[in-house]
What we know:
By secondary structure, the chain is α+β, with helices and mostly antiparallel strands. It is 27% helix and 22% strand. Helix 1 (4-18) runs parallel beside helix 6 (197-217) and helix 5 (174-184) packs across helix 6 (197-217). It binds a DNA duplex through loops.
Amino acid sequence: MPELPEVETVRRVLEPQLAGRVIEGVDVLNGQVVAHPAPEAFASVLVGRKIAGMGRRGKYLAVALDDGSELVVHLRMTGQLLVAPPDAPVEKHTHLVLRLSDGAELRYLDTRRFGRFWLFAPGEPDEVSGRCKLGPEPDDAVLTVAYLKAQAGRKRKPIKELLHDQSVVAGIGNIYSDEILFDARVNPLKPCCTLDDEEWERLARSIPRIIAWGIEEDVMTPEEYLRGQGKEYRNAEHLRAYGREGEPCSRCGAPLQRTKVGSRSSYFCPECQKLTGV
DNA sequence: CTAGCTTCCTGATAGC
DNA sequence: TGCTATCAGGAAGCTA
């Protein structure tokens, strides 16, 4: 389940393999994953374009094309982008194939088919992908205590849900919200309007730090990415809270607990992240 | 305005 | 063994 650090890893691995290649053919195997424009137009407009580079905004990837058009991808839960030789067997759940000028193929696989592609003509504003509604990147300097407090307002919803709100901060999902709250020693269920100044300070510091740490820990070579078939982002072993129910807290040794926030599994330390002042 | 629910999907796993 | 139920979760869309 890619969040910002994993999406950034995909970008770093794929960009050097794609930049400079020309898209010679497009096979839309499942039109469901093409959100804009219609699949036929999507394919015909892409053919002949040269890939200039690859960017990222939140969890969105953006392939920049030579004529100024832009191919935007959101992997959602199970989307994977793979570069494969054309003779490699086409795996189950392959929905889109871009045939490239060096003979390789960029393939999109997605078991749950939640992921989407959007293609924007040069100068065409992106008003449909949801990208324009994103809040600042986690490393953006505007992400101050004052900003977070203003976003929280009088909301009583759990702080974890505020971190999930892509219009507040871009790129945080269920895993990294647990990691950030663990690092900041804030209980995931704590209502937004009840955090004290120290908690806001720690949270504002933890957001950029934990996301940057996630990207560093995620570093992998193209060979490793290929071996894992784009499925393994190595995002489990370095985590300190997520998925570690019953394991000792790395700070105090107390067994970590699991709870539900909304409908999401949440892992936290009952000693370091006490629910007080509510 | 916000909170809360449903929808989209498949596959892994649990329980009977 | 084979069935059903549950869970995993990003984000949009809906209702109250």
